[in-house]
Design brief:
The chain is α+β, with helices and mostly antiparallel strands. It has one domain. The protein is built from two helices and five strands, in the order βββαββα. It is elongated, with a radius of gyration of 14 Å. The longest helix has 11 residues. The N terminus is likely disordered.
């Protein structure tokens, strides 16, 4: 299974400035992956302030077996901004 040993690979971008995600270890086994992956993003102060201000953001998965991209809704960015305040 391609996913079994894969670490989550995600990044969040704002105006081309990326914050790469760090997956939580220990959620998957050799033969199976976890249904839910927790990802933490280390934001620099400029990125943090931009999210608090409501800047548009995208979440990108760059996993070789699952490439995807989603624009975060203004409501979700607002919730994230409140969490970061």
């Amino acid at each position: 299974m391609a996913w079994a040993n894969a670490r989550p690979s995600a990044s969040a971008t704002r105006d081309q400035a990326a914050a790469h995600g760090l997956g939580e270890e220990g959620r998957s086994k050799e033969e199976v992956t976890s249904t839910v992956h927790y990802v933490r993003f280390n934001l620099d102060p400029t990125q943090r302030d931009a999210i608090i201000a409501g800047a548009s953001c995208r979440l990108i998965s760059a996993h070789p077996e699952y490439k995807a991209e989603a624009v975060l809704s203004p409501e979700l960015v607002g919730e994230l901004g409140e969490d970061l305040s």
